[in-house]
Write a structure and sequence with these properties.
This protein is an alpha/beta fold and 958 residues long. It is built from 15 helices and 60 strands. The protein has a 24-stranded parallel sheet, with no helix packed on it. The longest helix is centred in the middle third of the chain and has 42 residues. It comes from Rhynchospora pubera.
């Protein structure tokens, strides 16, 4: 063994630690232990180490890299990636390895800054440090590493700008700096990296314009700059990138038109410019490349005119995403003749005309979305030949005629949405043959006839929406426990007969059961009480009679009930008192229904067996009464203050500077400019009101929008606080650009964030905004990084004290920005006390429990509020929701579900959309749920810090 030079034990199932004796072998030169289950630390290396190659990646090694590694002066290749190694890259360890050529340490937990001397290693050609926790800036010394060919630093916490010295790396072929917090402009010197084949700078905070020098990279094949803040025009010199194959700039702030010179890129096969501010017509010959474009994504811009007919000129186009633009003309013949297409999304344009009634080719199309246009005519039956189709959305158009029966032959179809058209005729029973169908939405048409039995009883169907039609007949009593229906909406039709008792077998239904505005008769089936997950029940405007079954008390998840305008009699279920109080109209129009024992006086004539229900309702009434009195007092107080403030503002007109005036505004902007731009703070410019002031939106100059916040100056430290806030800069904090004071009035000038609040996106947008894993993760990480910055990087520390979804603003690409520092406080670090502030503030549902008893509140109250926001983001439920039950908030509700032993209870906590994610994304969502529960622990000392939360989030998404 002493003479052993080469040892390869890779990709076995070895476990345990690496024996110390192994690395002590004096002649060992090549050691390959990768792809095992080895644990523990890396052993120390001998004083006279002869190792040349050491590959120990894809194990479970932990601890620090031993300083004795510096003894391996002959080492050329070191790969310890995909382990659990911690610590820093010590200067005394790595800077002595002058023979090192390959350094792979990605997917570990390394921290600290990148040592400058690392870039002085003369032979270093490949360095992979991705997916760690490195911070700080990229050193200027990187330009000294002349032999560097591949550099990958993605997925760290690097800040600052990309150094100009990167232009010295003339041998560099791969540059990967994605998913950091890099800022500033792309250096023009990058155009000197003449060997560059691939650039990955996506998911940073880069701004400025695309430097024209980048077009000098003649061998560049892949350019990924998406999810930054890059503005300006696409350089016309782009034609010089004659080797370019992939061009990904989506989610930026690009303006202008796509230069016609882009059609000269004959190697181009993928282009995505989605979600920018581009306009104009798309170049006519965009698809005219040597090999043909494979993917085109121009979603979310302002392109207009015709969709070019030759995008699939070489028959290789697979993905065509042109939604959310202003296109008005399309040649469907040229699109449908492209047999390679798998995805066509033209939704939310201004397209007119009809789909051609011709023989379509055998198609690979799996996703076809033309929703929200002005298309008319009949739906071609030839769509039934698209055997790979999984999603069909033609909703919100002007289609007429019957639904083609041929749709029932598409065996792989999962979603059919033909809602909001002018379709007539009956629902084809052939749709019942679609054994993978999850959603069928035929609502808001003119359909008639019976609902096919095999459609109603389709086992896989989760969403059946048939409301607002002219359907007739009775509903068969054939629903079974095997069905996966989550919502059944049959309202506003001409259905009759009795409500089938077998509806009570639908054990998974929870989103809604709506059979209103029909002609149903008979009694409400007692079996409906089995629907204990159902949230919305609407049986209004029918001819139902008899008593409301007492078994409906078991429907504990109900948040909304409507039984109005029937012929019901007797008492309502004893647990439904809250619905009578909150929405009495939900029971009106039933002359013989007894509400007397549930009015606001709670008559003493209630039967003794209902004493418990009476006590609950009395308590609820007291709470509501007190709340109403308090609300009335607050409203009156606010009105008085508002009147006084209005008189004060009106009298001054906010136009003259008094001796109490201070301006800290951009050089080209004055107080008078703000007043002119807002028409003296006119109501027409108001975009929001909060507890801390009114927010106006206006423009200064061409196209530059700003938010202006008007506040009362309630404390003398306003100027000081504004100066400190103006110095706080972070990509996930709303940037304040200046402020001015006139007497007791303050105006704060902030950046305008156009995407609304997280609260609106989660709870108020119609239709519901789809939020995939990547978006929810981005929001979670962005807010966490903002709070970590406030808590750990600001001096003095800033505690926000009002973290909530309505204070998280979203830009066009749903990048989060924490806003509203009206309750924020600065906390000095003192040796004799904790970092605390004295106050009980915040928003109901987000307030940490210690706010009710502690005299001092520290930054952990922000951690708790952040955890609540995470639960809200994952569950898509408000922090305080009647569906949780009396006195139960989202934290208690989630914990109670997690205490159940079945997986359904755990998944039932989460937004339904998450159920359909890929397995790995669902697992990440559950890890995020676990982190949220750590943040919302009752004892604040046991909650993690925001810096620990950021690190945990980064590990979740590796």
């Amino acid at each position: 063994m002493l003479q052993l030079e080469y040892l390869a034990l890779y990709e076995n199932s070895f476990s345990g630690e690496i024996p110390n004796e192994l690395l002590q072998l004096p002649n060992l030169k090549f050691l390959y232990l990768y792809g095992n289950n080895l644990t523990g630390p890396i052993p120390n290396f001998p004083p006279h180490c002869n190792l040349i190659e050491l590959f120990i990646y894809e194990n479970n090694l932990s601890g620090n890299i031993p300083p004795s590694l510096r003894n391996c002066r002959k080492l050329t290749s070191f790969d310890a990636s995909t382990n659990k190694i911690e610590g820093t890259l010590a200067i005394e360890t790595f800077c002595m390895l002058h023979q090192l050529e390959l350094l792979y340490l990605e997917k570990n937990s390394l921290t600290g800054t990148l040592p400058s001397c690392l870039w002085n290693l003369p032979n270093l050609s490949e360095i992979y440090l991705s997916s760690n926790n490195f911070n700080g800036v990229i050193p200027q010394e990187i330009g000294m590493c002349q032999s560097l060919v591949e550099l990958s630093l993605w997925g760290n916490q690097l800040t600052g700008s990309i150094p100009d010295s990167v232009g010295n790396l003339t041998s560099l072929e791969l540059l990967v700096l994605a998913r950091n917090s890099l800022s500033g402009s792309l250096p023009g010197s990058i155009g000197k990296c003449s060997s560059l084949v691939e650039i990955q700078l996506q998911e940073n905070n880069l701004s400025g314009q695309i430097p024209r020098e980048i077009c000098d990279l003649g061998v560049l094949q892949k350019m990924y700059l998406f999810k930054n803040k890059i503005g300006g025009y696409i350089p016309r010199e782009i034609w010089k990138l004659h080797s370019l194959k992939e061009f990904q700039l989506y989610n930026n702030s690009l303006i202008g038109e796509i230069p016609s010179e882009i059609t000269l890129l004959k190697q181009l096969n993928s282009i995505s410019l989605a979600y920018n501010n581009l306009t104009g017509e798309v170049p006519y010959f965009l698809g005219n490349t040597s090999t043909g474009l494979v993917s085109i994504d121009l979603t979310g811009n302002s392109f207009y005119g015709p969709i070019p007919p030759y995008l699939c000129s070489n028959g290789s186009l697979e993905i065509l995403d042109l939604g959310y633009n202003r296109f008005n003309t399309v040649s469907f013949g040229s699109i449908f003749s492209c047999s390679s297409l798998t995805r066509i999304i033209l939704r939310d344009n201004q397209l007119r005309g009809s789909l051609p009634a011709c023989t379509f080719p055998t198609s690979a199309i799996s996703y076809f979305d033309l929703s929200n246009n002005f298309l008319d005519g009949q739906i071609p039956k030839e769509i039934g030949s698209w055997k790979n189709l999984t999603k069909l959305d033609l909703s919100n158009n002007l289609f007429s005629g019957a639904i083609p029966t041929e749709l029932g032959t598409i065996t792989n179809i999962e979603m059919i949405n033909l809602s909001s058209n002018r379709l007539v005729g009956s629902i084809p029973h052939e749709l019942g043959h679609c054994k993978k169908l999850l959603l069928l939405d035929l609502s808001q048409n003119f359909l008639s006839g019976h609902i096919p039995v095999n459609v109603l009883t389709l086992i896989t169907l989760q969403h059946l929406l048939l409301q607002n039609n002219k359907l007739t007949g009775s509903i068969p009593n054939l629903f079974s426990a095997n069905q996966g229906l989550l919502e059944l909406l049959l309202g506003k039709n001409l259905l009759d007969g009795s409500i089938p008792s077998s509806l009570g077998n639908l054990q998974y239904i929870y989103l809604g059961l709506n059979m209103s505005l029909n002609n149903f008769t008979g009694q409400i089936p007692s079996n409906l009480g089995n629907l204990d997950k159902l949230q919305v029940l609407d049986l209004s405007h029918n001819s139902l009679s008899g008593q409301i079954p007492s078994s409906l008390n078991k429907m504990v998840s109900l948040s909304s009930v409507n039984l109005s305008f029937n012929r019901l009699s007797g008492d309502i279920p004893k647990n439904w008192g809250k619905f009578v109080i909150l929405s009495p109209g939900s029971f009106s129009g039933n002359e013989n229904l007894n509400l007397q024992n549930l009015n606001h006086n709670f008559s003493k004539s209630i039967n003794k067996q209902n004493d418990r229900a009476k006590r609950e309702l009395v308590a609820l009434a007291v709470v509501l009464g007190v709340s109403i009195l308090l609300a009335g007092f607050c409203v009156a107080k606010y009105a008085a203050l508002t009147r006084a403030r209005t008189r004060s503002i009106s009298s001054r007109r906010l136009l003259s500077c008094s001796t109490n005036s201070t301006d800290e505004l951009p050089e080209d902007l004055t107080y008078d400019d703000i007043m002119r731009a807002t028409d003296n703070l006119s109501e027409k410019f108001v975009i929001g009101r909060g507890r801390h002031g009114t927010v106006y939106c206006t423009e200064f100059g061409e196209g530059k929008k700003w938010a202006v916040k008007l506040v009362d100056l309630s404390q003398s430290r306003f100027c000081v606080e504004m100066q400190v806030l103006a110095s706080i800069k972070h990509r996930n904090l709303v940037r304040m650009s200046g402020y001015c004071i006139r007497d007791a009035i303050g105006l704060i000038l902030c950046e305008y964030v156009p995407g609304g609040t997280l609260f609106e996106v989660l709870h108020q947008r119609t239709p519901i905004v789809a939020l995939g894993w990547r978006t929810r993760y981005k929001i979670s990480l962005g807010v966490a990084q903002a709070l970590a910055y406030l808590h750990h990087d600001c001096m003095p520390m800033v505690v926000h004290r009002d973290v909530k979804s309505s204070n998280v603003l979203l830009d066009f690409d749903l990048e989060p920005k924490l806003a509203d520092f009206g309750l924020a406080r600065f906390v000095e670090v003192e040796s004799d006390s904790s970092n605390t502030v004295s106050a009980i503030v915040g928003t109901l549902g987000y307030i940490a429990p210690e706010n009710g008893y502690a005299t001092k509140i520290n930054e952990k109250c922000d951690v708790y509020s952040y955890g609540v926001m995470l639960l809200e983001l994952l569950c898509r439920k408000m922090p305080v929701d009647p569906r949780f039950g009396d006195g139960v908030d989202i934290v208690k509700w989630v914990n109670s579900n997690l205490n159940q032993v079945d997986n359904f209870s755990i998944m039932n906590c989460l937004d339904e959309e998450i159920w359909y994610w890929e397995v790995d994304e669902r697992e990440k969502a559950l890890q995020l749920l676990e982190l949220a529960l750590l943040c919302t622990r009752f004892e604040r000392e046991t909650r993690p810090t925001m810096r620990e939360i950021v690190n945990a989030l980064i590990k979740i998404d590796r």
